[in-house]
Amino acid sequence: MIPERLATVVQFIGATLGIPAAAVGSYSAYHNYFSTEASCQRLSTNILAVMERNISAESRRALLRKDVTEFDKSCGESDPDARSVFLAALHESEYPAVAPSPAGAARPHLAAPAPPRPSSMEPPALGFGGERGWVTLSRRKEGSWINNFAGYGISETSLPPANVVLTAHNRLPVWSEMQGASNDQSQLQGVLAAGSCVRVLSARRGSGRLWAETVPASCNGWVLLTRREAGSLVPNFDGHAISDISLPPAGTVLVAQRQLRVWSEPQLTNANDQSKWKNVLPAGSCVRVLATRSGSERLWAEVVPASCS
């Protein structure tokens, strides 16, 4: 009995000691796997928050310098577009634009001249900074593609055709030329805001990234509110009891039940003009109604993208 009891005690002690060890090992593996990604996401969130906050120039400069430097070092290779946007914001904080003084305005006797802004650090314009520019449609990360835009099923084998309108998921740099394996900051000509829309002129594959030459575009578009099935109108959206006599008023937020095409103008006949096709609204996406219109047995709404929250 004694050896049996002793073995039981030893097993109990081993199990007691082994469970925490296994737990610690699992946590360590989890931490090592996700810590870099979590750290980059935290830095990105912090930087964007600083860029939007109403704080003094000195505070913004200090906060950006710290977080952007860390992001550049730890995360820049995995997200070169975010690095370009953040470096541009840091450069602008370091070398703010100086407004011209009114004629005849008194100047402080001890005012030091502002340091010259390096030509390679000119702040990018909000938007394109020109009539057209190159943006990254998606980038490859850990063997998969991360898309920067909604509006088309972008992949390595499915690049958006000309005239498709895309909506940016996040802030993106706009370049005067398509970039190679690394970005040339001197060719940065603007920053595309999250939620902005662009129209594709051409698309091309690059080194680890998919590119499109684009021009600014309106995010407005027309979608089909209903479809006819077996002689009855079936709504394509949730959020309003849509019918022939009940169209959603302006400002209503609707949720798409299915994938839908978005058109530059309502298609009032059953024969759709494919040249008016803008992009695709994914199932589950939300839109805000601007106006409604009846067509040939179809109900239409002019909409813009909206938050589903």
Distinctive features:
single chain, alpha+beta, 3 domains, 5-stranded antiparallel β-sheet
- Secondary-structure-derived class: alpha+beta
Low-confidence spans = 104-123
Spatial order of the strands forming the largest sheet: 3-2-9-8-5-4
Shape summary? elongated
Describe this structure in words.
The chain is α+β, with helices and mostly antiparallel strands and about 300 residues long. The protein folds into three domains: about 25-95, no CATH class; about 125-215, no CATH class; about 220-305, no CATH class. The chain is built from three helices and 18 strands. Strands 3-2-9-8-5-4 form a six-stranded antiparallel β-sheet, with no helix packed on it. It has a five-stranded antiparallel β-sheet with strand order 10-18-17-14-13, with no helix packed on it. Strand 8 and strand 9 form a beta hairpin.
How are the secondary structure elements laid out?
Blueprint: H1 2-52, H2 57-74, H3 80-94, E1 125-126, E2 133-141, E3 144-147, E4 149-150, E5 165-168, E6 172-175, E7 188-192, E8 197-205, E9 209-217, E10 221-224, E11 226-229, E12 232-235, E13 237-238, E14 253-256, E15 260-263, E16 277-281, E17 286-294, E18 299-305
Produce a short descriptive summary.
This protein is of the alpha+beta class and 309 residues long. It has helices at 2-52, 57-74, 80-94, and strands at residues 125-126, 133-141, 144-147, 149-150, 165-168, 172-175, 188-192, 197-205, 209-217, 221-224, 226-229, 232-235, 237-238, 253-256, 260-263, 277-281, 286-294, 299-305.
